[in-house]
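Folded chain entry —
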Amino acid sequence: MQLILDRLAQLADKVQGALVIDSYRVFHGRGRCFPGLEFVTVDFFQPVILITLFAEPPESWVEQLIAQAQPLFNPEHTVLVVQRRYLPQAPSEILWGELPESIYARRRGSRFNLHLAQQQNAGYFLDMEPGRLWLEQHASNRRVLNLFAYTCAFSVVAIAAGAEKVVNVDMSSAALNLGRANHQLNGLAKSHSEFVAENILKSWSRVKKPGPYDLVIIDPPSYQKGSFIAAKDYAKVIRRLPELMPQGGLVLACLNAPELSEGFLKQQFDEQCPQAEFIERLQAHADFPDIDPEQQLKLLVYKIPPA
């Protein structure tokens, strides 16, 4: 517990010394680098401190943490939310402060709408930052296809970095509506983005139509019954890449499934798109240490040659 309190004390110093703080993971226990704390993560989405519990903590653990952490912060300027992911519907509880009507993830001058304390996922994934940094470096003047776009954070980053156009595809209209709101929030021109609410695996003609593309992002859920199961469906996406980008280009293939290795994803490319050239695996974000790299988010970059 003392390690988390030390990290919170560092956060308290930042809050007192800065007007705007980029969102970040304060503490990551899930990577099993801190024995006895595997059940907890702490994130900061100014002004919200979000403690997520993935298993039932020891008796009185939360109460003791709060009692020692609360004096570090001004409850008029911070809010503490505890989410219990180990319970059905992952309920959230506000333990101090008042939740603002609008809450944002902040990143390098951009903002992204969040729905904290409402559902399991807040709408923005902090561990994907290496992918966003890579995209910033490669999006300029490119036509980007953002598959499994969710709330379109990749699209906001790509357009801000000079992408010619980004086509966002997701089967959830609600998620894409949040994506539109994220573009509006950041003052991005509507002409640079398109939103397609389709089941990707059943709508390839609709996905292909706005192309061709020269940069494709694949960021699917690892297991979503009825829509996508990475172990059997990732291959169906990879085999379509040559027709989506006949002039060639870059692919960022993401896999957030601890049970599936980097080797699994490479094998899918070898079998389904053997002409693709593996470039690199992006280094995991330092805020997300893990004793086993195969358990971490995998971000693989490939180059597709012209047809």
Remarks:
- The mean pLDDT is 95.
- Residues 2-113 form a domain with the Transcription Regulator spoIIAA fold (CATH 3.30.750.80).
- The chain has two domains: 2-113, 126-304.
